[in-house]
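ok so i was messing around last nite and threw this chain in just to see what happens. nothing serious, just curious
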Amino acid sequence: MEKIRTKVLLVLVIGMFIFAVNSHECLAYDTATEFDYPVGKPDGNGYEISGWNFLEWNGSVYHPGEDWNGEGGGDTDKGDSVYSIANGKVVYSANYGSGWGNIIVIKHRLPDGDHVWSQYAHLETRLKSVGDEVDVGKKIGTIGKGYNNEYTAHLHFEIRKSDFAPDAWVVGLSQSQIRDKYYCPSDFIEDNRESGLPDLDVSYLEGRFSGQSNWRKELVMYTNETKTIELEMRVDNDGEAEADKDDFEIEYYFSTDRDFDDDEDEKIGDDEVNYDLEPEGEDDDSDTEEMEISSAEISELSTPGTYYFFIYIDSDLEEEHNSNNTSKEDSDSDEYVKITVIAPVTPPTANFTASPTNGTGPLTVTFTDQSTNNPTSWSWNFGDDGTSSSQNPSHIYTNTGTYTVTLTVSNSDGSDTETKTGYIIVPRVPGAPVNFRITAP
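result:
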């Protein structure tokens, strides 16, 4: 029985025909057990083959691939995402100049041990480099217009039967000779959409923070809090074979971006659970399992905003299938828990200083607000029936006396008062008439 590594998301024209030396056999990567189209994930939605089709005569050669265009026509698809059609390893990624521009070639190992090579040409951007391992549906680049914008935007796409130069062309080759070296891309994909393997999918996911009783799709926490999240999910086996294993690791990722990317998003923890799921279609619901997952810690979020908590499963399946991967990267609403982070409710704390605090009258005193937590209103009482609503007022004391000063500050979260007893002293000048006043605390 062979160990199979599975990843499931829970929670992207001139020249001779030249053969290249195959230098990539040592590269390890997951077996391609399912294929999908390179644009419009899934199923090529919104795109069509409206340029040259496979083996169509274009005036100089029989076309060895397919030209995919957005249904909007023209350059409306320029910059659109291009995806890997299956699990594999990038073996070429470079700009090949006139006639081609940016090209990526990915090598795919099939369940029977054979290999195919997918070529993606005329790209505007290349997001993967030689040696990168990619999963089916992983974004690898964007649709472009070829070298120096020599074409209307489209994706030139090939599936090759052997490893030859990424910019090899087919001048002088017959249709039969091209069939010996290339597959019809769409036919090949349709014939290899899925294999008889498990296909795990998270059909339900909700969360709660420790201490809460209800499961929710959306949670709220304050900035700079530390929270432990618990998860409840349902895993379905939509495949044709049993998913029977001892344990698997659930990885937790956190991101501000709704589109999950396990290469870029922050991993914040992992967990292990057990499952035994029968193939799809069992009458006793044995192809579905509901489970609760213990916890992952979320902390150090100092900026209010919207965040997404994703589940990613990395498991070892014991299967009698010669394959390495049974995962899909669907991106629906059940794969994440949305977490809104808000600033805490914080009433202000009142405080102030004054200068000078002692002197003969008339004494002009400047008061400085030193309250914290962002007050929005101020109410001063200077102790001699004088008041102010300014943040940093000045006040003139004309009579001899000792004065108690009070400041009340407020914001939308509350208010606070600071009182300084006997804070301002205006002494009597020797020989001056007595006009003394003392304010009660």
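not much to say yet. Residues 175-181 form the longest helix (7 residues).
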